[in-house]
Amino acid sequence: MAGRQLYLYSLLSFFCVGLLMVEMVSGTRGPHIGVHISSQFSASGVNQIPMEDVSIQVGSRHQCRDVCGLNVSDRCPFIRTTPDCRSEGGYLNYLEGVFCYFPPDLLPLAVTLYAFWLLYLFLILGVTAAKFFCPNLSAISTVLKLSHNVAGVTFLAFGNGAPDIFSALVAFSDPRTAGLAFGALFGAGVLVTTVVAGGIAILRPFTAASRPFLRDIIFYMVAVFLTFTALYLGRVTLPWALGYLGLYVFYVITVVLCTWIYRWQRRRSLVYSMPGTPEMLSDSEEEPVSSNSYDYSEEYRPLLFYQETTAQILAHALNPLDYRKWRSKSVSWRALKVFKLPVEFLLLLTVPVVDPDKEDGNWKRPLNCLHLVTSPLVLVLTLQSGAYGVYEIGGLLPVWAVVVIAGTAVAAVTFFATSNSEPPRLHWLFAFLGFLTSALWINAAATEVVNILQTLGVVFRLSNTVLGLTLLAWGNSIGDAFSDFTLARQGYPRMAFSACFGGIILNLLVGVGLGCLLQISRSPTAEVKLEPDGLLVWVLAGALGLSLVCSLVSVPLQCFQLSRVYGFCLLLFYGSFLVVALLTEFGVIHLKSV
């Protein structure tokens, strides 16, 4: 699995460098090819630029993508003075880095470094979501005593889709990058419903659960239709944004009711059925998972009781490397682990994780006390890219210094009021602190991802939509794809297939609904105006709708038995869609002007 991830990461970097070579050999493209850009706005998406900024852009007629057509000596001043080239968030100015600090001859080197940094950001997103965000959400659902079904379609689904959702929220926050959100959400939808679903059917042909499949695909088709209609109308109003979130709440309620009805029918059939009567397994939403309560770490525990010191507890808790696991893994796994180690160490240092399955709830007294200082510090340094953290209170102390002083005081009290062996009664509060801190880490990484993709769009003269449906969709979906493939190989293809649709429903409804709602809250017009990236957005929406309709018709016709032939057909569909999308982006396929 690690080898495949490294292989896909390499493909992404070569994709970026290859595009740059094509751009340098073929010369600059004319402005008539690619995305349609409004005369008033720099890029398609959410139209909410203040009037004074609009007048500046209309008067200058400058768009950031024009920089590649200028003389080398004029590019850096253009980047620094053009409003369209300014980033609204993030810690690094990638456009200025490419055109001001790298000479033109080293442009391929700059793009290669950006490509590898982009891959590392995807790695940060995956590690943070899998090892810190999701476990804390699971602990919160346990604290709130939620059922497995409710937790699965709310907290855990949100944890699995965190990179996609936060990327969409960040993209919607800037009118120039809103096309990334639609491209990524629609692109991930096409990718998951074709490549991932098809791969599962190829690896392990199976019989899909009929009712959950029909329920999920119908809800997803409704969500796609809502988005298609919003793009056609060119705006999202407050009731429309709330409708997205309301539809997701209705979906959660439907899942809970369907599960309750299924269990009631199953109990009733068990009561009235004779021995040997087949049970209602065809429509089951739950698949038996082999439970193995044996903990393999038990064999490494010492026979004699040994009391660790506080310093030893802290050192072990901050060590992200399991030496026994390291010796037994492959070379590719070790190589990927080396890249993960700095990220995991930083996250262990700043994000508490509560594990209800452990006797002590993963209570590490010295580290958790340290988290009371580091976690709030991360919160203030990641909100608005650190703008709040460096603000000086009364012109004396910055906010981050006050947070460190207050956190140190709370940590000292907690340290002397607790013990190493027993967690405190309020230990569950660390789950909420860890959830918030990991969410802001994900948001910070997603902001950098969006800014890098915007920079690559300027360099390669690509629309935000095509970057969203390729690089952003691929990067955010790699982890989920391999997780689903692993489940299929282990004998649970139905579970993996159900996860395909459950996650993308949440990503689309919450990503668009919450993203537009946040923009509406900052807009005086109480609506978000949308400008699609020309024909490409409609190609993307049409391909997603067509794939869903084909699955809705073909799967019942196969009596819900998904074969390898069906899987290969889905892969062929995605390949055809990708070819059409790229041909549309480069102007080969276009609408004739009247």
Automatic annotation (TrEMBL):
Localization per record: Mitochondrion inner membrane
Catalytic activity: Ca(2+)(in) + 3 Na(+)(out) = Ca(2+)(out) + 3 Na(+)(in); 3 Li(+)(out) + Ca(2+)(in) = 3 Li(+)(in) + Ca(2+)(out)
Entry GO CC: mitochondrial inner membrane
Protein name: Mitochondrial sodium/calcium exchanger protein
This protein's record includes keyword Iron: no
Coiled-coil regions listed: none
Gene name for this UniProt entry: SLC8B1
Membrane topology classification: Multi-pass membrane protein
PANTHER family: MITOCHONDRIAL SODIUM_CALCIUM EXCHANGER PROTEIN, NA+/CA2+ K+ INDEPENDENT EXCHANGER
Species for this entry: Mustela putorius furo (European domestic ferret)
A GO BP annotation: calcium export from the mitochondrion
Annotated keywords: Antiport, Calcium, Calcium transport, Glycoprotein, Ion transport, Lithium, Membrane, Mitochondrion, Mitochondrion inner membrane, Sensory transduction, Signal, Sodium, Sodium transport, Transmembrane, Transmembrane helix, Transport
InterPro entries: CaCA_antiporter, NaCa_Exmemb, NCX_ion-bd_dom_sf
Gene3D superfamilies reported in the protein's UniProt record: NCX, central ion-binding region (1.20.1420.30)
